[in-house]
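yo, Proteasome-type protease is done. seq:
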Amino acid sequence: MTYCVGMMLDRGLVLMSDTRTNSGVDNISTFRKMYHWEVPGERIITVMSAGNLATTQSVISQLEDRNKAPSERHNSLLEAPTMFRVASIVGNLLQDIISERASDNGQRAAGTFSASMIVAGQIKGMEPRLFLIYPEGNFIEASFDTPFFQIGETKYGRPILIRGYDRTMSFESAIKLLTVSFDSTLKANLSVGLPLDLLVIERDKFAPLHERRIDEADPYFRSVSTSWSEALRHALDGLPNYHLD
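structure:
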């Protein structure tokens, strides 16, 4: 399992993912779940993945292969005219790979090879856009009503995002909110783990404004984690007491 969040702000996009992959408590590994490609001054595209590792790595490998020689390949993310087309390319590729693996292993295996993805980015002359891609290849786009997407182990960190999100918030506040969301998920589920990957994309810049890997020794993450736990305890103490009859 994993946990990834893509968030749309007025200023741009903020994305964070964990890196843990496990096949049981005795087989835990670290794999990158976030990838991005850019054409300086023209576009930046990010893909995050959750689900079957073989499936997601196959999708990323094929996207990488297409992007290395876009003039010689069809369906390169670096040549797609719109972000909608980018999402379509990733969705179709994901569906094809899952269908192929299910066909080779029997239709019942489709769920075994399932995966979902978040696609985010901006192409020059257009708005930043954020998409959630389902295993079937179809997708939905972020909007004012649904301004962020989660994939993987979503339930523990979602309440924090719902309560704290504001589309006008700064990048710094958004990173703090995501850090709390991930810290809560890490503490509740062993299938999500450090290090975390963070990427900030500012509107109309077409290059990462900020990119960082956050590990266990990261002072900011440790400070937020400790402060959040203390703040929760103080908030609980400050609530009205229940009186037994």
